[in-house]
Amino acid sequence: LQLALAFESRHEYGLAVAAAKHAVADDSQNWSNWVVLSRVEAENRDASASLAAYEKARSLNPQSSLFRGS
């Protein structure tokens, strides 16, 4: 996940998506991995992938304040 964040900070969104997908594959039950994937998918201009990752994150941690009102 740290690699995804590093790529994101350098605006290398395609690489960030790949790294975030790797983090999700390593730990698919960690909701924060899905949040980062959602964000970098959006920054990479893939709205449907971003939404799917967001929904997965919300399903794993519906009580998070991040998802209030959604």
Architecture overview:
With 70 residues, the chain is mostly helical. 70% of the residues lie in helices and 0% in strands. The protein is built from four helices and no strands. The chain has helices at 2-9, 13-26, 31-43, 47-60. Helix 2 runs antiparallel to helix 3 (31-43) and helix 3 packs antiparallel against helix 4. The longest helix has 14 residues, at 13-26.
List keywords for this structure.
mainly alpha, 0% strand, 70% helix, 70 residues, single chain
Order of helices and strands: HHHH
Total count of strands: 0
Number of helices: 4
Helix content, binned percent: over 70%
**End-to-end gap:** 25 Å
The biggest beta sheet is recorded as: none
Proportion of β residues? under 5%
* Net shape: globular
Q: Cα-atom Rg, whole angstroms?
A: 11 Å
Structural class: mainly alpha
What is the mean predicted local confidence, pLDDT? Answer: 96
| Contiguous runs where pLDDT drops below 50 for at least 5 residues | none
